[in-house]
Amino acid sequence: MKSGSEILVQALMDQGVDTIFGFPGGAVIGIYDVLYRTPQIKHVLVRHEQGATHAADGYARATGKCGVVMVTSGPGATNTVTGIATAYMDSVPIIVFTGQVTSAMIGNDAFQEADIIGITRPITKQSYLVKDVNQLSQVIHEAFHIATTGRPGPIVIDLPKDITMAKAIYKKINEINIRGYHPTYKGHSQQITKAAQMISNAERPLLYVGGGVNTGDAAEELRTLAKKGKIPVTTTLLGLGAFPEDDPLSLGMLGMHGTWYANMAIMDCDVLVAIGARFDDRITGKLSTFSTNSKKIHIDIDPTCISKNVQVNIPIVGHVKEILPKLAEAVKKTRSEKWLKQIEQWKKEHPLKYGSGKDKILPQRIIETIAKVTDHEAIISTDVGQNQMWAAQFFKYKNPRSFLSSGGLGTMGYGLPAAIGAKIGCKDKTVFCITGDGGFQMNIQELTTAVNYKVPVKIAVLNNGYLGMVRQWQELFFGKRYSQTILEDGNPDFVKLAEGYGAVGLRITKNEDVESVIRESLKIKDKPVVMDFFIEREENVMPMVPAGASLTDMIEGTV
Amino acid sequence: MKHTISVLFENKFNAIPRMVGLFSGRGYSIESISFGQGEEPGLTRATITTEGAEQIIEQIVKQLHKLVDVLKVVDLTYEPFVERELALVKVNSTPSTRAEIMQVTDIFRAKIIDISPKTLTIEVTGKSDKVNAAIGMLMQFGIREIARTGSVALKREFQGHI
Ligand SMILES: Cc1ncc(C[n+]2csc(CCOP(=O)(O)OP(=O)(O)O)c2C)c(N)n1
Ligand SMILES: [Mg+2]
């Protein structure tokens, strides 16, 4: 016989879990007691439960494994909500174990009781309140199965304290059979044949690639299809890295801050193939004018994504890794020569660009420098705002799972904990967190975690003294009335702060120091480094499609 | 347009709240919803009547299907289906109106299931519009309380021509 806590830890080991991100409390003290004598599992003590969920999320996105979080009941549980919602929007598999008051007390407004199942219902793929210790093993193994298959997503398992203490026999569950849960993987073969014909006959084909190709580990398969058909590729924010941006067929990112040529291409193409993407409003701009002349093929594992915003001609429900090879096999080389020439022309006429001021510290150049010194091999996590968009536009990603960012929810505070999780999961990779002076402060406490566990993440604060992205909107659309977006005077001294936490703090106020400081940061192997870049304060992210406008109505900005 | 959707699901903890939450969270309307045990223990059938444009209904059906606990979703609207609703209607009655109420009850093939000096309680079953009509006719006597089950529906099996 084992206690519920022991069953839980054993089940985690059987699932191959090597790392848990968590924070203890009364309701989970018994579980922590078992972890105390379980050296096989590394528990990373974060400094705020939101940090735990983002760290587990970063770990999951970077490694492809399921992230695991452990927190106590009540406030511990409610602190995870933003992290769960972030993972849900971006289809990231994490399992969040929340302590709960004893079964008999549930519903009594007991001390540190919160209905976390109710609170997280709309932001979880599935959730469980364990009412019988004999069900615990089943629940845990089932949760891992559901979190990581189909369209992945977060799961909450609520554990009343008495369940963690009650005894039962542990049975490892090898076969999961859920009557209502059978995600489609294969893809309808006739639909694939029809799609291949449509693509082969295209003159102006375009692959529009989303996070599904990263999540589905299908970058290789995507490349084969693009090469064989000579089809250009544009990706969403979460699709970055799924197709190498140094490839001539790459158009970079599309959408609100996408490249001019990607947005033109999507409006002008004759066959649009959406792959693991969901026609989000930041991608389509004004729906009624979106890519009106194209026939559309949509490949996605989640049928609810198909024809939700944009009607498509050929839907294919299934897993990208299964479908792309079949499609590539059936596709013939398209007659895209003219189209590719046109795109080349566009790239020349409307490149991504930024100012040249030699002595200014331009954020775009910082990103390019990080890319250069890491040979585009680093894993980049970002916060949300201008820093995120520059990191998306100027790094030129080569590898899948190398760009970690809160796309769907747009969560400020994601960057630092996600970087920590990614670095813990990928020890041999260099991990940079690109963050803003606003967002950095939203989970800055996790610097302690990084120092504590000697996690040498490199944190580049693009310090503009503003909530920059909001200021940009205010500049462009609200008559430069910078209402509540000026941080400058209120900002702390990030260098001293870093040092106070036991990290290395470096301030960069001259452009000529940018590269040397980044290189120096790479030499620090045993602690995090905070690089406080005093960037050009009112630099804007361009090009830009104003919210609700057509993709063709891009503002290119003046340089 | 009104749609009648039948959902068979494993009635695990949280399954019903997830189903209902899907409607409120995404702004879909529920006209009526009824739950009852399905053909096996552990399985529950929900009959949902809702209204919306075709694209919304398509999303509703897909979203319902996506729920982990859901086995089967059928939009009955485009198939022949049988549908019933049960209502209990408590109306005021006086010695002078009692006979008339009983007449109305007969016409709708409803039943009187409770009587007191001042009230009659009538059980009426049928399609929702018949139930509506019966309630409409009873209105004149003064309705005290109504309890309705919402529609339950199944696909009609006999589809041959006569
Ligand atoms: C938690 C949260 N609150 C508010 C916002 C709205 N928001 C989006 S970008 C932004 C500004 C971010 O400022 P900063 O972190 O300094 O980054 P910058 O844009 O200056 O690079 C804000 C407030 C958000 N995305 N997330
Ligand atoms: Mg800023």
Descriptive labels:
heterodimer, A: 559 residues, alpha/beta, Rossmann fold, 3 domains, 6-stranded parallel sheet, 22 helices, 36% helix, B: 162 residues, alpha+beta, Alpha-Beta Plaits, 2 domains, 5-stranded antiparallel sheet, 4-stranded antiparallel sheet, 4 helices, 28% helix, elongated, binds thiamine diphosphate, binds magnesium ion
Averaged pLDDT of chain B: 95
> How many domain units of chain A?
3
Using DSSP, what is the number of strands of chain B? 9
* Span between termini of chain A: 70 Å
- The portion of residues assigned to helices of chain A is 25-40%
State the helix count of chain A.
22
Across the major sheet of chain A, the strand order is 3-2-4-5-7-6
Number of strands of chain A: 20
What structural category do the secondary elements of chain A indicate? Answer: alpha/beta
Oligomer classification: heterodimer
CATH architecture field of the largest domain in chain A: 3-Layer(aba) Sandwich
- What gross morphology of chain A would you assign? globular
Strand content bin of chain B = 35-45%
Second CATH tier, the architecture of the largest domain in chain B: 2-Layer Sandwich
Largest interface: A-B, 20 and 20 residues
